[in-house]
Amino acid sequence: MWLIFALLISLAFSQEVLKLGAAVSFTGKYAKEGELLRRGYELWKETVNRRGGIKIGDKRYKVEIIYYDDQSDPKTTAKLVEKLITQDGVRFILGPYGSAQVFAAAGIVEKHKALMVQGGGASSKIYKQGYKYIFGVFNTAPDYGKNLIDLAVSLKPKPKTVAIIYEKDIFSEDAARGALERAKEKGLKVVLFESYPKGAQDLSSLMIKIRAKNPDIVIGAGHFRDSVLVVKQLKQFKINPKFVGLTVGPPVPAFVKALGKDAEYIFGPVQWSKAFNYKDPLFGDTKGYVEAYRKKYGEDPEYHSAGGTAAALALQIALERAGTLDVEKVRKELLKMKVETFYGVIGFDETGKIVTKPMAVVQIQNGRPVTVYPFKEAEPVYPKPPWE
Amino acid sequence: MGILPQLILESLLLGTFYAFMSLGFSLMWGVLNIINLAYGTYIILGAYTAYTLYTGLGVDPLLSIPFSFLLGLSFGVLLQRVLIDRVMRLEPFMVLILTFGLDVFLSNLLNLIFRADIRSIDVPYAERSFVIGPVIVTEVKVLVFFLSLLLTGAVYVLLQKTWTGRSIRAVALDREGAQIVGISPGKVFAVTSGLGTGIAFSSGNLYGVLQGFTPFDGGMLTVKAFLVSIVGGLGRVESALAGGLFLGFLEVFTAFYLGEGWKFFASLLVMFLFLLIRPRGLLGGKYYGEV
Known about the structure:
Number of strands of chain A: 17
Radius of gyration of chain B: 19 Å
Strand order of the largest sheet of chain A: 2-3-1-4-5-6
Largest sheet of chain B: 2 strands, antiparallel
Number of helices of chain B: 11
Distance between the termini of chain A: 61 Å
Strand content of chain B: under 5%
Number of domains of chain B: 1
Number of helices of chain A: 12
Helix content of chain B: over 70%
CATH superfamily of the largest domain in chain A: Response regulator
Largest interface: A-B, 25 and 27 residues
Distance between the termini of chain B: 40 Å
CATH architecture of chain B: Orthogonal Bundle
CATH topology of chain B: ABC transporter involved in vitamin B12 uptake, BtuC
Radius of gyration of chain A: 22 Å
Oligomer: heterodimer
Shape of chain A: elongated
Number of domains of chain A: 2
């Protein structure tokens, strides 16, 4: 009864409709991530509309999102975003999933001076083009390495030496350099900083080197398969650092599945975790968001969905503060923004990259990734016990 | 001292595997006088055979070596009879094109069946190792080392002591002469091709245990086999051993002192140098038959 009443009221106020658009992967290799991202957008949309829509100036707008399937192909993303802007008349774009897709969309959005807020791409390349109309809520690659070091130096007894190995590709190298930079800042001794070629399947030479240096920390930056390989070979060569951090892998269930008991106590960064504890203007706090998500989808949210919701939320706040649908003014509000949300504090630098939010670090404990930093679901286990 | 014993051990273990892996390539080159560009993909085919047997039926990849060998043998004989024989007598260039096409076909076929994901054969003993003084020894590598040595030895005995081996060497040395004494080159070609392909397939089992693989890793392995044959020379089983060990040492030491990224570059550079300075290789006789 109350619901219907509320609905009637909201309908009465929401004459106007604000159309947003998103090209998201429903098919192809990112179909799963695309669906999670869409869920994030949808949860935001429903919550906002239930509250009577977005208040811009003295009008209330009901939100509608036009979705297209980019089939996980960046070229298609670009075409669809162009279609959204030129044919559907959308000025505000919610981002696609995947760094390549975001990158492709960004060029189009910039060309048409529309505005995109995205929670689907973490490559720092997106922010190095001098684009003015692209904002992103994902931490970029260097933060993946930095946060691992931040956590490591906060532990007792404090580690002194670190070895960093990385796959020779842009993302992994960025992440490794982030770790290197932070390690030097924190006074750690970097005993090894070395790359291996893409697709390498035997890291024996690197392992011999690491074994000879016997570092307290080992950081591995690479893709999922590399992470599994690094763990296997560390064990094979009986290398027992106190801290093993891998930029990609640990948060994904497949990591534990691939490594079993050997995955225990390994650290890995994540964009967001439900263990975060922040206040939020729309959902109350992080817990409120998690509950709303669980109620709608029957499972806990993870960072793909949270990134989507956060991107949309940032856009909403900027629209409300600007009080107009003028792209330039909304953009200025995004640049000025520093607001606490369920996702963390959202604020951007002049390139549109988020700079105010930490990443979380998880550790595998009893076959499950638990958040240990900066919010604690559990105490981090350190130093890591030797391999069995 | 310090790290040196470790590096030497790694080089020896890896080099012996390379020697066995390249033996089939060198044999086909020496006897049939063809360069088989699909050779690396034969190895990968072997690795996928072992993978399928292991994940499907739980057969240990080291125990399924005979099966891989027989599969490779039949595949090689069939291929020789149906395809290669037809173009071998024409320009040598034709064989290159044929085997190149075969390589593309086979790797894409594997990609269709198994997808491009990296596969690995995760045997339970894969991560075991033991320490002797300053040196750490991984058990799998030692197993692969002994098997490679054993199988290389077997090929040596086959070529030296059996009638089949002698006729292979005879054909390699002098096709017409062999015909005069009643050896049919056609049969010898089929047997050699089968033997070579069988070696490739069975080394695939070992390769799959050592590291992960994808359908498109064949090209790189062909280059390695090529390099072993160039450096060692095409002469004998011993030359493959010399070439394999050389590559093993080169890869391990370059990777350690210059970095993983330099490994492949250094190998290719050395290959060019050999072709320039000593094209017959370290122990280069002419063909398998030459004494």
